[in-house]
């Protein structure tokens, strides 16, 4: 099998992995080396589905001894199999890197023979890259659950980022769909990596040139919509992972039906992209906007509102928090206004030191007034003579078509009555508004 | 005497030249309505006032900027000068006049129209240079890395450090077709030089193979069930596609054994 065939098979098998960022570490090549990394990450292209391509994302092999039911590479699936040799993979990477196609390598793998053997193959590929080619670019490697911790330690010295996939948001879902994996086999290496990162950071303080262990931190991902786990459970789990395991990122991937199985959604199910999108928005709110999971969802309201992003949804239910005086409000409060993002909030704080801000100033600072106007005042003044009704606010937040659908799902009894925003619409999946689907994961809220 | 309302400066297009315009504006207590380049076609009714570049004057202005308004402001107008914003020269002059008046706080006057215009222009520049750090595609000819770009802003000065740190041991060449300039690098020095045109040789077999491997990867990595051309376009505007390998002419498959190809890379 030539390298074209291998690349095709092993890319195809890796494409459902979400993470492709090259962020989290700044470095440059030492003399005689090649490669650098930028903390902000660099996208080298965008694929037809709109996702960033930063790293050469491939599997070492798609042969797998396990039989996770949601996975194209599961043992029982009849699909062509291939494996890179460590040297083939290293050469492919370095040649793509020289041409500036990529920022580095994202290496994952099916379980060939057993987790230790697989990890040894990965280590050898990375060793060739780092030692023979003196490659300093970005490497993200997946830790295979069940791998010996000594091997994980070696892998970690060769990579910038590592990840252990949570795969499914609950232990019961795992038991059902990934019989070879358990909560323990996933969380144990995650904990181990976290401890090593911590130890290593104290080493680096003591000895400046101590080699770095996973300097860009670890991330994880989970599949959304293959199991009945709710948004509330998923978001709580996410928050826990950030807090307990100090993860850099949690990624979500809408389940694409790849197998006929009574335990899984049928093959004609459309992937729940809107849920994935809402989860990413909520994830941003956790990481950059000072929200907690319990503010966004709770026991009674376990699913996101499909028509409103989580921040707007929160704001509409906390109208007592508004209107907010943008010339006075602390930064952390500004962040809670729909239409004000991290950048515009920062600019407001700078600009208001020198002048009292008016509405037309806010536009210049990047505030989306169409949304924000209902929630703010500029030193006592609200925009014009807006009478704020919830329906007005809703109109401003949605397109006409979406608003129509919203009203179908949440019938409006009378203009003045409190909208029953909290009830879940009955049929979410079929009629989800297009424009929100087209908005990309990274769009600011 | 020049009438204030249609005073036009003509300068030589250099940063020093622009600083001399600032000098002139202070010296003569006048504010131009336009600052034009030597080759600007003469559509103006009024003749322009020729501003000679005088290093002594420009260095005086240069030294006064960090002193009066801080290094951030100097760094900022240097970047503003690289942008493709209309009338950027005039805005830089107006910005500096504000800076002499308000001092360091100029960098916080984000709602002032002059400051705001320049901030937006610089953001556009930073954005474009960031995108191009990823979108530049090299071809390898005789072990030299060669790329072409067609940016709106003059981004080469902002890309030098990045690529020098990425490829310290390589020789590379990035040709900016819009501005007729090229960034050239060999260990361990770089320069930006004027270049008229660039004709690239046919790729050799190895180069061709890697291009095709990359296209194969690019096409395969997409999840078809999530096809979303609008999202792709918003992240990667079409004007960048022209020089990107993944959108090049159709692949013809050639056979390549990777083991042989990268030997020269191993010391
Ligand atoms: S171990 Fe990984 S590759 Fe193998 S079947 Fe499970 S998810 Fe797929």
Strand arrangement, major sheet of chain A: 3-4-5-6-7-8
Largest interface: A-B, 68 and 62 residues
Strand content of chain A: 5-15%
Class of secondary structure makeup of chain A: alpha/beta
Task: Look up the CATH topology of the largest domain in chain A.
Answer: TIM Barrel
- Oligomeric grouping of the chains: heterodimer
> Quick one: overall form of chain B?
elongated
**Percent of sequence in beta strands of chain B:** 5-15%
CATH class of the largest domain in chain A: Alpha Beta
* Spatial order of the strands forming the largest sheet of chain B: 4-5-6-7-8
- Measured as a percent range, the helix fraction of chain B is 40-55%
Radius of gyration of chain B equals 23 Å
Radius of gyration of chain A: 24 Å
Q: What is the overall pLDDT average of chain A?
A: 85
Helix content of chain A: 25-40%
Order of helices and strands of chain A: HEEEHEHEHEHHEHEHHHEHHHHEHHH
How far do the termini of chain A sit from each other?
47 Å
């Amino acid at each position: 099998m030539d390298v074209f065939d291998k690349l095709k098979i092993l890319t195809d098998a890796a494409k459902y992995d979400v993470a492709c960022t090259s962020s989290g570490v700044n470095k440059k090549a030492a003399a005689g080396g090649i490669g650098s990394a930028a903390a902000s990450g660099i996208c080298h292209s965008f694929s037809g589905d709109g996702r960033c391509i930063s790293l050469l994302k491939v599997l070492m092999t798609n042969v797998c001894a396990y039989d996770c039911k949601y996975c194209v590479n599961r043992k029982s699936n009849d699909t062509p199999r291939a494996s890179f040799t460590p040297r083939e993979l290293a050469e492919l990477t370095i040649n793509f890197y020289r041409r500036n196609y990529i920022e580095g390598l994202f290496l994952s793998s099916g379980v060939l023979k057993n987790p230790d053997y697989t990890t040894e193959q990965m280590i050898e590929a990375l060793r060739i890259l780092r030692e023979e080619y003196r490659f300093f670019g970005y490497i993200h490697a997946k830790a295979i659950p069940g791998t010996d911790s000594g091997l994980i330690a070696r892998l970690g010295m060769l990579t910038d980022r590592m990840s252990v996939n949570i795969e499914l948001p609950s232990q019961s879902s795992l038991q059902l769909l990934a019989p070879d994996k358990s909560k323990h086999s996933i969380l144990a290496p995650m904990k181990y990596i976290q401890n090593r990162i911590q130890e290593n950071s104290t080493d680096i303080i003591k000895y400046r040139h101590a080699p770095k262990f996973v300097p860009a931190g670890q991330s994880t991902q989970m599949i959304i919509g293959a199991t009945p786990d709710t948004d509330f459970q998923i978001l709580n789990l996410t928050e826990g992972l950030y807090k307990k395991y100090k993860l850099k990122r949690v990624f979500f991937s809408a389940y694409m039906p790849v197998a006929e199985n009574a335990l899984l959604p049928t093959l004609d199910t459309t992937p729940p992209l809107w849920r994935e999108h809402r989860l990413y928005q909520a994830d941003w709110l956790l990481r950059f906007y000072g929200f907690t999971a319990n503010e966004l969802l709770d026991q009674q309201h376990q699913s996101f509102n499909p028509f409103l992003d989580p921040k707007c949804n929160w704001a509409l239910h906390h109208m007592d928090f508004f209107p907010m005086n943008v010339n006075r409000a602390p930064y952390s409060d500004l962040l809670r206004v729909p239409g004000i993002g991290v950048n515009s909030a920062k600019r407001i704080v700078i600009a208001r030191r020198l002048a009292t801000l008016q509405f037309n100033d806010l536009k210049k600072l990047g505030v989306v007034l169409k949304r924000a106007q209902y929630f703010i005042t500029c030193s006592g003044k609200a925009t014009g003579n807006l009478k704020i009704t919830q329906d007005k606010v809703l109109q401003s937040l949605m397109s006409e078509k979406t608003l129509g659908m919203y009203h179908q799902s949440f019938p409006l009894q009378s203009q003045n009555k409190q909208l029953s925003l909290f009830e879940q619409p009955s049929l979410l999946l079929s009629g989800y508004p297009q424009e929100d689907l087209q908005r990309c994961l990274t769009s600011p809220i | 005497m020049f009438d204030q309302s249609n005073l036009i400066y003509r300068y030589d297009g250099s940063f020093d030249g622009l600083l001399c315009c600032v000098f002139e504006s202070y010296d003569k207590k006048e504010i131009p309505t336009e600052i034009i380049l030597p080759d600007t076609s003469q559509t103006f009714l009024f003749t322009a006032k020729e501003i000679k570049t005088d290093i002594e004057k420009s260095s005086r202005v240069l030294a006064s900027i960090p002193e009066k308004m801080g290094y951030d402001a100097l760094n900022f107008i240097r970047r503003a000068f690289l942008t493709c914003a209309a009338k950027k020269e005039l805005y830089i002059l107006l910005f500096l006049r504000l800076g002499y008046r308000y001092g360091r706080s100029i960098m916080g006057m984000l709602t002032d129209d002059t400051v705001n215009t320049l901030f937006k222009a610089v953001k556009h520049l930073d954005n474009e240079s960031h995108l191009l750090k990823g979108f530049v595609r090299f071809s390898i000819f005789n072990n030299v890395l060669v790329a072409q770009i067609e940016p709106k802003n003059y981004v080469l000065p902002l890309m030098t450090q990045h690529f020098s740190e990425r490829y310290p041991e390589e020789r590379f060449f990035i040709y900016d077709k819009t501005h007729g300039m090229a960034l050239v690098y060999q260990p361990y020095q770089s320069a930006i030089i004027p270049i008229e045109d660039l004709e690239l040789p046919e790729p050799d077999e190895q180069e061709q193979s890697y291009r095709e491997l990359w296209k194969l990867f690019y096409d395969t990595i997409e999840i078809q069930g999530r096809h979303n051309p609008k999202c792709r376009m918003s992240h990667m505007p079409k004007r960048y596609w022209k020089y990107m390998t993944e959108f090049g002419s159709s692949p013809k498959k050639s056979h390549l054994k990777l083991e042989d190809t990268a030997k020269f890379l191993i010391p």
